[in-house]
Q: What sequence folds into this?
């Protein structure tokens, strides 16, 4: 079994941003299309504002749950600097999809460290293709910051081997069960994400 | 109300489950009737999911020892019983375990122990497989969720057949990895009832001594079971230069990295399946043992006198997690091959993002205060407030293990040299930790006339693991109302004088300052109680957010020392003081969408620049 028969996705961001939910939806879509799936997160003290990554792997048969450095088919960055942090996980030629939202931790506020001036530039300078988009602003326009998650999923949707519709269905099905009122707005957010990434790809 | 899918899934359903969820479902399917745990990463979610099954009893216990005792009692009564804990929890519970192994079980008794391999959030990385050797018990090691599910179901029967508790050893990559599981259905077990048998259940020295030969006899049966167990399987491989012996998630990494070599996968790993091991040794030139944490199997293999070279920790990482990536290089070298690692993009420099206390956390004011009171030593404990050691507070001087803040504070007091004579000693502990292991320490402080000040930070939850209930929260595992312990009365009962029991609102900084300063000067034990809910639980009510009035902010940056993540810097600068000293300035704003108006930071602002977001209109006189 060669590693490249597996799709490796690294979802990264900060505790509380909905990284795990996004990874869960990606996994559900992979299951729905007949794949074997493993999903894991690296989140020390997840709810306490620390770094969170979730590894999603799917294919015919997946053994190790971990996406090793140099093997991710893409990373989905929920925050600019976090997207930048994880680029060594990408395999050569793969791309980083990065929300340009900046979340500065207290160590930056109190002046111990600097937040990178232009994370997108830094990613590109490292030789990685980067598709930046402002999911935070888009979510605000749609009326709720929590929509960032659906926008991020929309952004990654067209990169997946099984197509965007499956992913969208998995996402919206969750809301249908739990919060039917929010189906429409998340549908919009998802499509917004797709549009944003297309626009980003055109510019790049 | 919707039933949780884990509960409602019919037999044969394929689900994406974490190892913890899979264990929970299996515990229920096995007909288990009593399950107990104290929350601890990475094991917490086991009981969080077990409690969804309303046809069995589940509880959060005050600590792991008690959770095991509850399970033991239920087993004695003839029910199948279960408890779960993290690795360090078994240290706490080991006293009960080491005796129960002599007594054996009534109903099947299964203990899931989750090792935090890779230190995701623990004070050490220890290998629970040792407990199998120590306590003469079988160790089962699942490698993914499906196996966690199957082994758990099987473990109850194994426990009954063998008349011994069974340890299910999990690791982070089992607990928190989601993989596909096909579930089954519940098998009710008739409850045998308690059978009086003092020779077994009353472990006096005389009784215990008689049980030892019985236990040694059991060891022989155990060995035989391990040898015949289908959980140990030898997978063939064409490349015989090297064979692997492995268990747990390490197997998955081996399988991914070296699919062409023979692999002995051990699911029932203590005692070692000798027969299978010899079968592997006969067909390969070398054996590599891939095991996580200690070289335990490696040592035992070497002692077996096999005719092959055994490698393990001499070439593989000695601590932390194994992975296909970190095994490929060393194994290639062993085979005399060159290994070309995948081309990776060099890391870019990014600031660290350590975990920090939440926006508006009731502990913020406490640590802000402690960081500003001079001449104190602070003995810390396990919980969110361990984060007080980090920036910007740096207000913890020790932290060793659950509940240890009390004893260590007393030790600092009793052991102090002349240089420390004038220091105050403060112990910081949370409600749940205090109930878990702190009470005894406080009793010791009182009894031995220690001169320490204890800050008991009651936030009505086990905050660090996600806000679980405890006897201080007034709710049980199902969120239903439960008696709530009165901490003031409790510490008084432990002997702290009522005058020395002080209540403070942790959101009122001047009160905190005054109280801490005053209490550390007393020459007797004192307890400062704070009582405000953790912001992650339902009891917490957010208020109106605040904002910073730009013109009034002088850039003094004092409010940043509170450490609230909602306070952000907008601009930095420098100022030269009259005495020629240069000081750093930082102007701030408040992220209004995050601020909950806890009203802590305005107290740190000497210039009244932090104001309610909707300005209050002053009433005319
Ligand atoms: S989880 Fe609760 S106790 Fe822990 S840092 Fe957040 S608010 Fe504070
Ligand atoms: S009032 Fe101040 S300390 Fe409290 S949540 Fe808002 S910004 Fe944070």
A:
């Amino acid at each position: 079994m060669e590693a490249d028969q597996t799709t490796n996705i690294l979802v990264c961001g900060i505790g509380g941003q909905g990284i795990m939910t996004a990874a869960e939806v990606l996994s559900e879509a992979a299951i729905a299309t007949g794949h074997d799936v493993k999903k894991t997160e690296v989140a020390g003290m997840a709810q306490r504002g620390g770094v969170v990554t979730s590894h999603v792997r799917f294919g015919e048969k997946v053994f190790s749950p971990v996406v090793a450095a140099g093997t991710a088919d893409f990373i989905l960055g929920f925050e600019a600097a976090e997207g930048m942090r994880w680029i060594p996980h990408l395999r050569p030629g793969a791309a980083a999809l990065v929300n340009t939202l900046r979340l500065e931790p207290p160590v930056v506020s109190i002046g111990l460290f600097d937040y990178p001036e232009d994370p997108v530039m830094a990613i590109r300078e490292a030789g990685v293709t980067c598709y930046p988009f402002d999911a935070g602003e888009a979510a605000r326009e749609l009326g709720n910051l929590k929509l960032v998650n659906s926008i991020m999923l929309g952004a990654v949707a067209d990169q997946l081997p099984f197509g965007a519709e499956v992913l969208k269905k998995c996402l919206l099905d969750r809301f249908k069960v739990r919060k039917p009122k929010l189906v429409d707005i998340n549908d919009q957010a998802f499509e917004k994400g797709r549009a944003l990434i297309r626009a980003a790809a055109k510019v790049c | 109300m919707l039933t949780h899918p884990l509960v409602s899934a019919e037999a044969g359903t394929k689900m994406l489950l974490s190892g913890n969820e899979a264990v929970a479902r299996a515990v229920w399917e096995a007909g288990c009737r009593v399950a107990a745990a104290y929350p601890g990463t990475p094991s917490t979610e086991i009981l969080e999911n077990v409690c969804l099954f309303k046809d069995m009893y589940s509880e959060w216990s005050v600590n792991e020892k008690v959770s095991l005792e509850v399970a033991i009692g239920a087993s004695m009564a003839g029910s199948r019983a279960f408890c779960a804990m993290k690795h360090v929890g078994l240290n706490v519970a080991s006293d009960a375990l080491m005796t129960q192994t002599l007594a054996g079980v009534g109903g099947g008794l299964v203990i899931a122990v989750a090792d935090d391999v890779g230190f995701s959030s623990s004070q050490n990385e220890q290998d629970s497989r040792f407990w199998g050797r120590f306590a003469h018990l079988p160790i089962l090691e699942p490698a993914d969720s499906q196996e966690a599910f199957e082994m758990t179901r099987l473990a109850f029967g194994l426990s009954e057949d063998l008349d011994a508790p069974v340890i299910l050893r999990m690791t982070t990559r089992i607990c928190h990895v989601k993989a596909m599981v096909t579930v089954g259905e519940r098998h009710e077990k008739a409850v045998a009832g308690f059978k009086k048998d003092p020779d077994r259940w009353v472990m006096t020295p005389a009784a215990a001594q008689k049980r030892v030969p019985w236990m040694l006899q059991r060891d022989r049966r155990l060995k035989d079971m391990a040898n015949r167990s289908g959980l140990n399987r030898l997978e063939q491989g064409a490349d015989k230069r090297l064979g692997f012996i492995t268990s747990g998630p390490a197997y998955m990494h081996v399988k991914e990295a070296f699919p062409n070599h023979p692999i002995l996968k051990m699911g029932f790993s203590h005692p070692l399946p000798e027969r299978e091991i010899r079968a592997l040794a006969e067909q390969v030139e070398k054996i590599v043992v891939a095991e996580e944490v200690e070289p335990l199997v490696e040592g035992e293999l070497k002692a077996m006198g096999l005719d092959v070279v055994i490698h393990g920790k001499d070439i593989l990482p000695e601590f932390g997690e194994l992975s296909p990536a970190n095994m490929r290089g060393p194994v290639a070298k062993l085979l005399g091959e060159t290994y070309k690692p995948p081309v990776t993009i060099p890391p870019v420099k990014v600031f660290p993002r350590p975990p920090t206390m939440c926006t508006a956390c009731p502990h913020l004011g406490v640590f802000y205060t402690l960081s500003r009171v001079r001449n104190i030593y602070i003995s810390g404990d396990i919980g969110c407030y361990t984060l007080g050691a980090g920036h910007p507070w740096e207000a913890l001087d020790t932290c060793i293990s659950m509940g240890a803040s009390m004893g260590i504070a007393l030790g600092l007091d009793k052991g102090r040299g002349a240089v420390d004579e004038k220091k105050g000693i403060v112990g910081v502990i949370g409600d749940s930790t205090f109930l878990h292991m702190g009470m005894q320490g406080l009793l010791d402080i009182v009894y031995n006339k220690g001169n320490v000040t204890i800050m008991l930070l009651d936030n009505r939850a086990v905050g660090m693991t996600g806000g679980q209930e405890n006897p201080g929260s007034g709710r049980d595992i199902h969120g239903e109302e439960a008696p709530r312990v009165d901490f003031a009365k409790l510490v008084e009962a432990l002997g702290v004088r009522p005058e020395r029991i002080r209540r403070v609102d942790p959101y009122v900084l001047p009160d905190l300052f005054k109280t801490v300063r005053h209490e550390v000067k007393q020459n007797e034990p004192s307890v400062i109680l704070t009582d405000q809910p953790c912001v992650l639980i339902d009891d917490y009510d957010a208020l109106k957010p605040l904002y910073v009035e730009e013109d009034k902010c002088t850039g003094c940056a004092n409010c940043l020392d509170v450490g609230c993540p909602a306070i952000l810097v907008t601009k930095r600068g420098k100022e030269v003081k009259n005495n020629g000293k240069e000081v750093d300035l930082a102007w701030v704003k408040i992220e209004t969408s995050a601020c909950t108006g806890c009203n802590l930071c305005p107290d740190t602002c000497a210039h009244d620049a932090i104001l309610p977001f909707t300005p209050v209109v002053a009433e005319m006189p």
Summary: Chain B touches chain A through 60 residues (CB under 8 Å). The longest strand of chain B covers residues 567-576. The mean pLDDT of chain B is 94. The CA atoms of residues 368 and 562 of chain B lie 5 Å apart.
